[in-house]
Amino acid sequence: MTFDFDLFVIGAGSGGVRAARISAQHGARVAVAEEYRVGGTCVIRGCVPKKMLVYGAHFAEDLHDAASFGWDIEGARFNWPRLRDLVQKDVSRLEGLYTQGLDNNRVEIFEERATISGPNSVRLASGREISARTILVATGAWPARPDVPGAELGITSNEIFHLETLPRRAIIAGAGYIANEFAGILHAFGVHVTLVTRGDRMLRGYDEEIVDHLVDLTRKKGIDLRFNFPFKSISRTEDGSLVVDGGEQGEFETDLVLWATGRNPNTSGLGLEAAGVALDKDGAVVVDEYNRSSVDSIYAVGDVTNRVQLTPVAIREGHAFADTVFGGLKRTVDYRSIPTAVFASPPISGVGLTETQARKEHGDVVKVYRSDFRPMKNVVSGRQERGLYKMITAGPEETVVGLHLIGPDSSEILQAAAIAVKAGLTKSAFDDTVALHPSMAEELVLLK
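Structure (tokenized):
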């Protein structure tokens, strides 16, 4: 059979764009359909614009501390519309670069929705039917909203980047990285933040001691953090305020509710089930180690598979798919020891096993090393906030199986340290490394 394209990609996010570009470099005839904007969640309404807001939020504390370093800052004030518009300007710049990358590799872009109409065919919103030898689903995930009355009155992370004005009060519902990050961002911008979760813990999957440290610091900063919060409903008052019914915890009046309660694989209405593609209970595309679905000609990468919802993972999956299907190189992604970070205030980061996971997996051969310290900048400024670094080792040689940090720039520090965990280095390798002084990173080679 002859096809219009060798590869048709649905979704121009990080994974889809990488897969399209590398496949084209391998000689495939490639097309991409994107119904919104090229770049996907990360570039358009996720990690990139969010990190820009995090940078903006840092100045709240930096300006406060500036006097301790000899600076006189008078009349400083925050301008939300200015930052919002600058962020969106840079998002547009990045979208242009992503589009240029596809154009340079002769990937045809269809700026409309596409659905699967068969094992080797897609249908565009305009009605055009296109055939392809291989179809790749890279449609990402979509913010979840809880099933409570008035849920539509809240917004999600999709909309928060476009607020006309900042609210005076905000309730953020969630226990994951999005909830904690925006709690810190909005608080720094002067919003009174209440962070609530139905459960009894934040950031499951991260080291519990590190998370407990973050919870303590979050409360000390003035963020109202509430566990076991039974979100009952939202209603609007005559003056436009919102009232959140928290059951036995009472009613809370606010100006904004942000749902940060997870993200669901974006498969609804794509025609996957009709084409015979198996989905799991959460609606994610079920794939094998080579990203192939239950239909031989249809593959999927990124958040839509619900394996690891991280942009760098989606990029690796997209690249591995392209090399495997069009490059003649069978490649898979190693999901062990993936470094992650939460850009909260302060940020936390981790790689490998947590202390709890390590003790469950390795038993009595686990040793934990810690450094509880006050960063030099905080000492000079008088800020009491402390950092905490943890190293988890296992076995007689003390192989490093986990590193977990909380403190300024912890994510920047962890990236290099994650290589040591991936390589299976031992505690002695850290001990034998001369400290870079004075720095926070030197704590990693001084752990006791």
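Residues 155 and 400 are 41 Å apart (CA to CA). The chain has a mean pLDDT of 96.
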